[in-house]
Design goal:
Blueprint lengths: L3 H40 L3 H21 L10 H22 L7 H5 L6
Length: 117
């Protein structure tokens, strides 16, 4: 049987988890917006601003990682997954824009030691 002390401890843990979850949701939305904005900045040719925005998104994603240490299930929430996906898209597009070309057919595979015939 649970005592009042046990129930109080459970309530405290649930409140902390709920605060962390809400904060992670807010941060994931912000990171998604920043990464999306950086993609638009790259398309406009403004790599300097895009780099700054990507840095902000990265810091936000790092904060999500810190908050989810005690609650790893927060990392697999849809909002967090979308934020990381958008971030990866932004850094990939930035890399393409910096090189000013896409990889030629098979070049990516050859870089990883695979031959194409």
């Amino acid at each position: 049987m649970l005592t009042k002390k046990d129930l109080t401890a459970i309530q405290k843990d649930l409140s902390q988890f709920d605060r962390a979850r809400e904060r992670v949701l807010d941060l994931s939305r912000a990171a998604t917006r920043m990464a999306s904005s950086s993609i638009l900045e790259i398309h406009r040719g403004d790599l300097k601003t895009a780099n700054s925005t990507i840095e902000q998104a990265e810091k936000t994603l790092q904060e999500i990682e810190k908050l989810s240490v005690d609650a790893p299930e927060l990392r697999s929430s849809n909002g967090v997954i979308v934020a990381f996906q958008e971030y990866v898209e932004a850094i990939t597009l930035r890399k393409v824009a910096q090189k000013r070309r896409c990889w030629k057919g098979g070049e990516a595979l050859r870089r990883h030691g695979r031959n194409i015939r």
